[in-house]
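Internal tracking record. Fields below are filled automatically when a chain is submitted to the structure queue. Please do not edit lines marked as system-generated. If the sequence contains nonstandard residues, flag them in the REMARKS field before resubmitting.
Queue: standard
Priority: normal
Entity type: single polypeptide chain
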Amino acid sequence: MAKGAELNDRQRTTPDLDELVRLFYDNPSELGEFTEVSAAETPEPFRELLAHDHHMTVTVERFHGSAVDVHVLKTDTVGSAYSRKILLSKQSDGKVVQFGIVRLHCDFLSDIVEREIKSEKIPVGRVLINHNVLRQVQLTSLWRVEPGQELSERLALSPGQVIYGRTALIFCDGEPAVELLEIVTP
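SYSTEM-GENERATED OUTPUT FOLLOWS
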């Protein structure tokens, strides 16, 4: 079997929102209600934070003027796929600035990169950058998010506050190695 053959054609080109959410939630609406939107329909500062083909780690750090720490809330491993539900918080004051669900296809990562990611101490984007992995970030969709209770609490949102997120795919050395759901706070 060729490397990556276990991925179907759809997974090779775009992460599926429901599939990513279901990695950690029985019902996707527990996390929130998602509506796909265009970049033009995404208000600032969310558009600046999300509507691009760059690593969120770098974008969030630049926007907030602070390096970020990763907090891994839960992990799951199925075959060579390692998934985790995370928060990123600013080192400067501890404020949570991003919620994410990440699924990594470890067959496409070197052993050292995989070990460092699984150490749960450094954001995925920073690990890939630090190891000079040839990567391409592909924005696939932007989302208007009406957060559920858990997401509202984790991001310290006001009741009814709408936020935005994105799904993206990171190709490492030309292979679809990382599927992402990234939801940010303003």
